[in-house]
Every structure is written in structure tokens, then in C-alpha cells.
Design goal:
The structure holds two protein chains of two kinds. Chain A is α+β, with helices and mostly antiparallel strands. Chain A contains nine helices and eleven strands. In chain A, strands 3, 4, 5 and 6 form a four-stranded antiparallel beta sheet that branches. In chain A, strands 10-9-11 form a three-stranded antiparallel beta sheet. In chain A, strands 1-2 form a two-stranded antiparallel sheet. In chain A, a hairpin with a 2-residue loop joins strand 1 and strand 2. In chain A, helix 2 packs across helix 3 and helix 2 packs antiparallel against helix 4. Chain B is α+β, with helices and mostly antiparallel strands. Chain B has a four-stranded antiparallel beta sheet with strand order 2-1-4-3, covered by helices on one side. Chain B is elongated, with a radius of gyration of 26 Å. The model of chain B has no long low-confidence stretch (mean pLDDT 85). The chains are: A alpha+beta, B alpha+beta. At the A-B interface, helix 1, helix 2 and helix 4 of A face helix 1, strand 3 and strand 4 of B.
């Protein structure tokens, strides 16, 4: 009897074993514990990837644009405040970088000079803002190497005469826990200078003279269009290969009258600002320098222009610009 | 004797099956979450969609077209969320509320409730809630994003946009 009972128990265990195997075989999901984690990881990586893309293609570029725009305006206000030009191109770049990043010039807060454009608007402020937000909202750690940021402000064939470019290079890292990125990248933006004050006018005359592009191209010049050019206080970019070019917009910050082939712009001194001057060509950079004085590459004489020159407005042009503005027939040497 | 052994085996098989089926039914009944995933996806989808659809893509929406024509929308390259953020920055909360009704209600299925928040740090700039029962809901899913933008030459934000969905 004892042997027979043991056989029954054996078969009972066999039955339990068979059922267990069947249950386990049809519920294999139970063993794939990582399966539940996959959507979470996928979502996390997707969030980090979206954030990084948004950071690089939108946030940093928008921040750089708005901060650069206001930094350039701040430097114009600083020049006006100091009533003096900057020293050189290097000086312009150094001051631009300092204003852009920290809102200071030579370590002094420019808001103390009444220039408030950079308050809560510096590039570093924007970087710290997004560092904090990415941590608080997305739990992603973002770090920018604020001590090693390089910037340059420039005009070139890429920007043309009516825009300035800003390049900014920096290192940064983004750590989302399950994925991280370390990057060094250069961000580039372009700012239109239309509407910006011309530093040459600000310092030399004390008047605001915003940049406004003329509607005439170089094939349309005559005495009538030149008159319109003067009255509308517009600027012209010389589109030829001559070496007698005007300085570009950025060169006007440090009073350089050297020619800029790609980006030189010039306007005419109007009646309000001329102060009865008779010994200068009335092209702005000629008027405030000796670049176009008689005996230079601009010719040996100055000419009145019939229809423009009057006793109260003794407008004069050098020989080179008479040709440029197509007013040879109206030019008279006295 | 042999017949008895088979009887025990069959008996054990049936008994174990009953126990397993019983336990399974109890477990499935307790862990039934038919809508949780949909709610979770919806919340994230709304954020993703509103972060990618641009204003000019809503030109068939009469309300949006009117806002653009009136000059209240100045940049049709803004995404829907960016436009909401801009309304908040310009303190046009009534317009933001109407904009949400006209745009978001077309994105979110009517059976779902949602809350849309725009926050500047801990300050709530904008709060739009559709539906009730948020406090008592068993399934409440939140998705967040960072929004920012530019008006003329000034930058606004970054703000937090948050969509909470529940059933």
C-alpha cells in the first residue's frame, strides 16, 4: 500500500509540473522585466535629443542675436557717452565681447552710465537661465564653459555692407543621465545695421544719423538722384573695384577711414551739419578726414554742383565722387 | 491501482488549473489600466504637436487668421506654444485663452480633460483648464517643455509650458 500511495504523489507532482510549464510558457512577458523600462528610456532620450536640438538651433542663436543686437547698440551709446571713438578694431572686438557677455566695459557696469539695454539681457544671463530651466523642468544638466567663450564681430562678403556678423565659439555639455553630450560649437548670427546710428556723425557732429540704404543703384546716379540722396540722408555702397572706397560701418566705430572693398558705405553731409565748410568734399568720411583732400587719389580739385550748391549750402565734391555720382556736367570749379 | 494514479494526476491538473486561472483573474482585474498609456501619450503628444505646428500652418483657422490680420500675431513662424508664450509676455491673457480654445480643442479629443500652464519660474502666467475631476483622477499625466521667443530685438522667456491630461 505504501508503494502504491507514493506512485499517486509522484503523478500529482507531475501534473503540477506540467501545468507550471504551460503557465510559464504562455506568460513569457513576466520574465522580460526590462521591457517595461524601454518606453521610459526611449522617452527620456527623445526629450534630451529634442532639448539639445532646440538649444542649438534656436535658443542659443536667438540669445546670441538679441544680446549682440543690444550690445552693438550699447557700444554706440557708450561712444556717445564718452564722446570719443574706440581705439582700434581689436578694441571694438574686446569691448563688444565684454558688453555681450557681461554688460560691462573695462569692468564697469554700463548701466551706471545710463545704458540699460543689457540688463537681464547679457549672453551669460541667458546661458544661466537655460542651465537652471533645463535642470528644473527637464532634469537635464546643462553646463556652459563661460570662461572660454570667443567672439568676433565683423563685416565681410558674407555679411555685405548692410549687415554685421557675430561668431561665438564655446564649449558646453548636456547630461540627461542616460545620455550625455560634450560639444564645442561656433554659433553665427547676422544683424542688420539699418536704423543703427552712425558713430562718425555722433562724435563729429553730435547728431544722430541712422543708417538708411539708398534706393538708387550705381547706374541711376545723376544730379536729381544725388539731391534725393542728400535730402533723405541715405547711404550708398560703392559696387565697383576702385581702391577709393569708403569705410564700412564697423570701421566708423574706431574712426578708420581706410577703404573697405566689400562693405564701404557713405552718405552726404547735409545743410544742417555743413557749417559753411568750403574746403572739403561733402562725402561723410571725406568731410571729417583728409582722405579726399585735393592732391590725394580723389583728385586735385573740389567742385560745386549746379542745382545743389547754394550760398547757404556750399556743397562740394572731389573729382572721384563727381564721376561716381555721374554729375560731371553739373560740376564747376571755382 | 493504475486507474487511481491517473485519477490523482487528473485531479491535480484540474485543481492547479483552477488555482492558476483564479489567481490570474484576480490579478488582471486589479491591474486593469485601460487608458493610462493613452493619457500619457496624449499629454506628450499635445506638447510635441504644439511645439512643432507653426502659425502659418493654421491659416485655415479663422480666428488665427484674424489675429494675424489684426497684427496681434506678428510672426507666423512661431509655433503654437511660442505664440501662447508671446501672448503671456505681452500680457494678452484673454487672447491667449481664446487662442487655446480655438487651437488646442482641435488637437485634444473631447473625452480627455486637460490643463495648460505657462510658468515663469514658479509664477503661473497662464492657466487654462478644460474639464473637472483633476484632483480626484486616478490617472494624471504631466508633460513639460521649455519655450522662449523673440519680439523685435528682445528675447522673452524661457518659460515652462506644461500640459496635464486626465480622465
Amino acid at each position: 500500500m505504501a508503494i502504491k500511495s507514493k506512485k499517486g504523489v509522484f503523478f500529482t507532482f507531475m501534473g503540477i509540473l506540467v501545468v507550471s510549464v504551460l503557465v510559464l510558457a504562455f506568460s513569457s512577458d513576466v520574465y522580460v522585466t526590462s521591457k517595461n523600462k524601454i518606453p521610459v528610456i526611449k522617452s527620456r532620450v527623445k526629450t534630451a535629443d529634442n532639448y539639445l536640438r532646440n538649444l542649438e538651433t534656436s535658443y542659443l542663436e536667438t540669445s546670441l542675436y538679441t544680446s549682440s543686437y543690444n550690445a552693438l547698440k550699447s557700444i554706440i551709446l557708450y561712444i556717445n557717452y564718452e564722446d570719443d571713438f574706440l581705439v582700434s578694431e581689436n578694441d571694438l572686438n574686446a569691448k563688444f565681447k565684454e558688453v555681450l557677455l557681461s554688460g560691462t566695459i573695462d569692468g564697469a557696469d554700463i548701466s551706471n552710465m545710463g545704458i540699460t539695454l543689457m540688463q537681464d539681457n547679457t549672453f551669460i544671463y541667458r546661458l544661466e537661465d537655460i542651465e537652471r530651466m533645463s535642470q528644473d523642468v527637464l532634469h537635464i544638466t546643462t553646463r556652459f564653459d563661460e570662461d572660454n567663450i570667443n567672439t568676433v564681430i565683423f563685416q565681410s562678403n558674407d555679411t555685405g555692407p548692410w549687415q554685421v556678423g557675430v561668431n561665438l565659439t564655446m564649449n558646453y555639455s548636456v547630461d540627461a543621465g542616460i545620455a550625455s553630450w560634450n560639444k564645442t560649437k561656433t554659433f553665427s548670427i547676422i544683424i542688420s545695421i539699418i536704423g543703427f546710428d552712425d558713430p562718425l556723425y555722433l562724435i563729429n557732429s553730435g547728431y544722430s544719423h541712422p543708417i538708411k540704404e539708398t534706393t538708387f543703384n550705381d547706374t541711376e546716379w545723376n544730379v536729381d538722384t544725388l539731391m534725393g540722396h542728400i535730402e533723405n540722408q541715405t547711404y550708398r555702397h560703392e559696387s565697383n573695384e576702385s581702391t577709393e572706397h569708403s569705410p564700412n560701418y564697423l570701421m566708423r566705430f574706431y574712426e578708420s577711414y581706410s577703404p573697405s572693398l566689400c562693405c564701404g558705405i557713405e552718405s552726404m553731409i547735409n545743410e544742417t551739419l555743413c557749417d559753411g565748410e568750403t574746403g572739403k568734399s561733402y562725402v561723410d568720411y571725406c568731410f571729417w578726414s583728409d582722405e579726399c583732400d585735393p592732391g590725394t587719389g580723389y583728385g586735385n580739385k573740389l567742385y560745386n554742383i549746379l542745382g545743389i550748391t547754394t550760398p547757404s549750402y556750399p556743397f562740394k565734391l572731389d573729382a572721384y565722387h563727381i564721376g561716381q555720382y555721374n554729375v560731371k556736367d553739373e560740376a564747376e570749379y571755382i | 491501482m493504475h486507474k487511481k494514479a491517473y485519477f490523482f494526476t487528473l485531479d491535480a491538473f484540474i485543481a492547479t488549473s483552477i488555482i492558476v486561472i483564479g489567481i490570474s483573474l484576480i490579478l488582471f482585474a486589479r491591474t486593469n489600466k485601460p487608458y493610462e498609456m493613452q493619457t500619457a501619450f496624449l499629454s506628450q503628444d499635445v506638447i510635441d504637436t504644439a511645439s512643432s505646428i507653426k502659425i502659418y500652418e493654421l491659416s485655415d483657422n479663422e480666428y488665427v487668421s484674424n489675429l494675424t490680420a489684426d497684427g496681434n500675431i506678428t510672426n507666423t513662424q512661431n509655433t503654437v506654444l511660442e505664440q501662447l508664450g508671446e501672448f503671456c509676455y505681452r500680457e494678452m491673457n484673454n487672447t491667449a485663452g481664446n487662442f487655446t480654445e480655438k487651437v488646442f480643442l482641435r488637437i485634444i479629443p473631447p473625452e480627455y480633460n486637460f490643463q495648460l500652464l505657462i510658468k515663469d519660474g514658479s509664477d503661473i502666467l497662464f492657466n487654462y483648464t478644460k474639464g473637472k475631476g483633476m484632483e480626484t483622477s486616478r490617472v494624471l499625466i504631466s508633460s513639460k517643455n521649455i519655450i522662449f521667443g523673440q519680439i523685435n530685438n528682445l528675447m522673452w522667456g524661457p518659460y515652462t509650458s506644461e500640459v496635464i491630461t486626465w480622465q
